[in-house]
Structure formats: C-alpha cells, structure tokens
Amino acid sequence: MRSRDDLQVHNFLYAFSPDCLFDTEAGFLDRYPGDQWVDMAGMDNYADFGRNDCYNVEAGIRKLKIVSDYARKAGKLAAFTETGLESIPNQTWWTGTLLKALQTEHVQLACVLVWRNDTRSRTHYYAPFPGHSSVPDFLRFYESPFTLFENDLSAIYRIRRR
C-alpha cells in the first residue's frame, strides 16, 4: 500500500478523534494508529456537555486535558473535534459550559468544532441562528479574548513569498 508520503500528499491534516469513552491516556490511545500517521489528536464529546440534559463537565474537562497533554507531548495539534448541544436549549451553554471548560486546566486546543445545522430539521442544529435564544451568549463567547474566529486571523490565507 502506498502512503501519503509516497504519493506526496501534504495538504491534509490527519486527525485521530475517538468518542469520549476513555478516562486515561491509555484508553484514549487504545486504537491510535501511531504518531507517524496522525497530525491532530482530538476528541468527540457531546455526552459530558449536556446531551439529553446530562452534564458531567468535569469529566469532559479531564478528557480534554488528556487530549491536550498527549498532543503537546507528541508534538501534535490538539482539537475538540466534535461537540455541541442539539437545539441549544441552555441559553448560556456557550460561556457557562463550553468556554468554562476550555479555560480550565490549561487545555491547549487548535480548534473546537460544533456539529452542523440541518436546514431540513427544526431541532437538529448546534450553532445559533438569528433570533435563537442563545445568540446573546454566543456573542459573549465570540467576543471573549479567549476565543479566535476566522475574522480574528488576518491574512491567514495569504501566501508568504520567500
């Protein structure tokens, strides 16, 4: 089998991001393919952050810390590759849950991704839209000096000439 290096494929980031069913670094790495194949270590976690009105944010923070610490040790990017709260029934979820978790334990993440908004469904969405009750809190999250969005990164796509 030819590898990405044999094929000169260098424009992808390869992420390892299991679900949140681990409590230790060894559990996180249970099916890890190896540092030579992974650019980004991440985690998908809805369960600890309010899914079905169940919150265990402390457990979620511990798991993010495992991901962040491993990535730092291995020289990888760390990410919260999937999270969110379907329909966002908690009006302060963005700052009261997500931002609070991100600011705890010196977790270092390159990105955080909330899941999609399905335009065909009235309830399957993870980002607020105009008029949604969590918009004011999302704006506080967006304006926090702790968060960066694409608009905060000037000239990120400019090609640097040597």
Report on the structure:
With 162 residues, this protein is an alpha/beta fold. The protein has a single domain (15-152), classed as Glycosidases (TIM Barrel), CATH 3.20.20. The chain has helices spanning 25-28, 57-74, 93-102, 135-143, and strands at 15-16, 40-44, 77-83, 111-114. The protein has a four-stranded parallel beta sheet with strand order 1-2-3-4. Helix 2 (57-74) links the parallel strand 2 and strand 3.
The shape is globular
Helix content: 25-40%
Q: Widest sheet: strand order? A: 1-2-3-4
| Computed Rg | 17 Å
Tell me the strand percentage band. Answer: 5-15%
- Cα end-to-end separation: 35 Å
Under CATH at level 1, the class stands as Alpha Beta
What structural class should be given to the helix and strand makeup?
A: alpha/beta
Classified in CATH, the superfamily is Glycosidases
Please give the domain count.
1
Low-confidence stretches: none
CATH fold descriptor: TIM Barrel
CATH architecture: Alpha-Beta Barrel
Helix/strand order: EHEHEHEH
How many β-strand stretches? 4
User: Biggest β-sheet, characterized?
Assistant: 4 strands, parallel
Please work out how many helical segments DSSP would assign. 4
Average pLDDT, rounded to a whole number, is: 94
